[in-house]
Write a structure and sequence with these properties.
By secondary structure, this protein is mostly helical. Helices cover about 70% and strands about 0% of the residues.
Length: about 700
């Protein structure tokens, strides 16, 4: 069911495209007597307003369209010149099809405008070879784009909150959660869920390769982790009064408020490093009091609360660093641990080069889609040219609009499109037979038919959209040249031909889309991070005089970067292609960060038993760590469709329900308990019996 706000957006878009197409088409055809220019003025708004899903507010879309106008003129010129020969047009289609589809690596706006740009080459590259009509084509194209851009500004859609605004709102909620009185846990977790990219409009997702977008995405994950930690702290059993924890929480609240203001205004950043200095002092006091005589040590409940407070302060520190990078373009102080902020000191050209080169591989779904699109369009152009199909550009249009990133989704789209076109062809044929050559009637019908088609098509579904668009095409072409019912027949043949080509490309070339790659990358991340749990536990169980060296985390950081790239690719797919995947990928990345941060921090600064752990407490810690590793492997097997191992008899999540034998590192216990809860939530989102698990994030 489409919500009222979405219906209003679809209606506004239909009005904009209809008005722009009509204002360009009628004067050029009936006033200036330029049918070619009129045709391009009609299709330009359709290409950029309907075929192109350009995200953003009205001014944002208008800006994208105006910047896309020069490339559109170049593509129309190339198509006109290469139409001299079928194989020249096919070669041009292969190169242009790949480059425009691969532009998705630059983010949602270039990806959104690319299909419309494809259409300008497609329209121009078909016979007749008419270089003398080039001026008319360019004039009509320019008029259509300018009219649509103007209407995007005059009749805009409401602007969605930017990701920076969402992050600032979430940090305000975190500040209230860390302050006196707190906030209900459900409200804190709900605030964190607003930062999942699955719930953010494509135009506002931090999807670019530059430092600012990378930092915003990382800040969103850190803020979501902070909100979850605050919710967990609120759910914990009451502990005795602890002024030190209250003071550190107050510093976290102040930092969250300052970061939220900083993100909104860009001025007066929070003092760099103050929270880290307070954290070091807090931990030093903990170590001193926990190492004192048994009668003077704080109660276990206080130590646990302090550990949770220190962990959430670390998350707040991550937010502080990433917000600094997002606003300034780089950290104002050295970012530590450096491995997690590898992008902070790289130049923008190097980051973009890494993004592009990193996607020039058959493991990249963006590269896969670009190759598939280019091959499909080139094959369609070759078939249409070789068979001399009338209005053969509809073959390519079918490949362009019906292709999906998975073979199954393509088949579903093709079935609906063919059914819709069959009905539309019958109605259009009857219309042409009934009206004959009464051009004035077609002229009166075109505007209302376009408005109905562009408004109801998206609301009712693909089959209706294809049927209604067939009627629009017949009504428009009947005014440019005499037509018969065979126009509907030609469109039906062309759409079926294009559908078959698109379906074959989907079956032959990487039919699983980004879903398989993101599953593989996340499973690899979990398997690489899992051993760090055992290594970190052993480091914390060592006597106080033992080694303070953190385990090697670079392999985990490398896997984290690969998983982040796969996640970005997955989010670049259309919602229909990934709608059946309900895994909370954001939570997987958060859990991996939790492991990597703990492995870096705990061996060096975490509390240790004063004289080593007892056999019972060490066995508890090792058993819990082993259970976490087993659960991580189980999740990885679920991700890769392998047979999962049996669930551990003692779930790691049971740790909060009973105290481990003492002495044991409280920081280790809290760290493993938090990880157990995160893994349990991830596994529930993957298990089919969970039913109502969250949508893929």
């Amino acid at each position: 069911m489409i919500a009222g706000q979405q219906r209003a957006t679809i209606l506004r878009r239909a009005v904009r495209v209809t008005v722009a197409a009509s204002v360009g088409f009628y004067p050029l055809l009936y006033g200036a007597g330029l049918p070619v220019a009129a045709l391009y003025a009609l299709f330009a708004p359709i290409a950029m307003g309907l075929l192109s899903a350009v995200p953003g507010s009205g001014p944002q879309r208008a800006s994208v369209m105006l910047r896309a106008l020069p490339p559109a003129l170049v593509l129309a010129t190339l198509g006109t010149l290469l139409a001299v020969d079928t194989w020249a047009a096919v070669g041009g289609m292969l190169v242009i099809g790949f480059l425009l589809a691969f532009a998705a690596v630059a983010g949602p706006r270039p990806a959104g405008i690319a299909p419309g740009l494809q259409l300008f080459y497609i329209l121009a590259c078909f016979p007749p070879y008419a270089p003398d009509a080039l001026v008319q084509r360019l004039a009509g194209l320019t008029a259509g784009v300018l009219l649509l851009a103007a209407l995007e500004i005059l009749l805009p859609d409401p602007a969605a909150p930017s990701y920076r605004e969402r992050l600032a709102d979430a940090l305000d909620e975190a500040a209230r959660g860390a302050g006196p009185g707190g906030v209900p846990p459900q409200r804190l977790r709900a605030a964190g869920s607003t930062l999942r990219l699955a719930d953010v409009p494509p135009a506002e997702r931090p999807a670019g390769a530059g430092r600012a977008d990378r930092a915003l995405e990382q800040a969103g994950r850190s803020a979501r982790r902070l909100l979850d930690q605050l919710a967990t702290l609120a759910e914990a059993p009451p502990a005795p009064a602890d002024p030190e924890s209250a003071e550190l929480l107050g510093r976290v609240a102040a930092l969250c408020t300052a970061c939220a203001r900083f993100l909104r205004t860009g001025s007066r950043p929070p003092p760099a490093g103050k929270l880290e200095e307070a954290m070091r002092g807090f931990q030093a006091d903990r170590v001193r009091t926990a190492s004192g005589p048994p009668g003077e040590r704080p109660p276990l409940g206080v130590l646990r609360r302090q550990s949770r407070v220190l962990a959430l302060a670390e998350s707040a520190r991550m937010v502080e660093i990433t917000a600094d990078i997002a606003v300034h373009g780089g950290p104002t102080e050295p970012a530590a641990p450096r491995a997690l902020f590898w992008y902070a000191e790289l130049s923008t050209p190097r980051l973009w080069a890494r993004r592009v080169l990193g996607n020039v591989t058959f493991r990249s779904v963006l590269f896969q889609n670009a190759v598939r699109t280019a091959l499909g369009l080139a094959a369609a152009r070759a078939v249409a040219g070789s068979l001399d199909l009338a209005h053969g550009f509809w073959v390519l249009l079918a490949v362009l609009t019906l292709g999906r990133t998975t073979a199954g989704a393509t088949w579903q789209a093709v079935r609906r499109a063919v059914a819709g076109n069959a009905v539309g062809a019958l109605v259009a044929g009857a219309l042409v037979i009934g009206l004959g050559r009464h051009t004035d009637v077609y002229a009166a019908l075109l505007g209302p038919v376009m408005l109905v088609a562009f408004a109801l098509g998206p609301l009712l579904g693909l089959a209706y959209a294809q049927a209604l668009f067939t009627i629009v095409v017949a009504t428009a072409f009947a005014q440019i040249a005499p037509v018969t019912w065979r126009l509907s027949e030609a469109r039906m043949i062309d759409v079926v031909t294009g559908s078959v080509i698109g379906l074959l490309c989907g079956l032959v070339a990487w039919p699983a889309g980004a879903r398989r790659e993101v599953h593989r990358a996340m499973a690899g991340l979990l398997r690489t991070c899992a051993p760090l749990v055992t290594v970190t536990a052993e480091a914390l169980l060592a006597p106080s005089g033992g080694s303070r060296t953190a385990p090697e985390t670079l392999p985990g950081v490398h896997r984290l970067r690969l998983a982040e790239a796969a996640y970005a690719q997955f989010r670049a797919e259309t919602p229909a292609d990934g709608e059946s995947d309900r895994a909370d990928w954001h939570a997987v990345l958060i859990a991996a960060n939790h492991v990597l941060l703990g492995a870096q921090w705990l061996p060096r600064f975490g509390l240790r038993p004063a004289s080593g752990a007892t056999d019972a407490s060490a066995a508890w810690a090792r058993g819990t760590a082993s259970g976490l590793v087993a659960q991580t492997d189980r999740i990885a097997r679920l991700l890769t469709a392998e047979r999962p191992g049996p669930a551990p008899r003692t779930a790691p999540g049971s740790a909060p329900d009973r105290d481990p034998p003492t002495p044991l590192s409280v920081d280790l216990e809290v760290w493993m308990t938090s990880l157990a809860h995160q893994l349990a939530r991830i596994e529930s989102s993957l298990t089919p019996t969970s039913g109502t698990g969250p949508p893929s994030g």
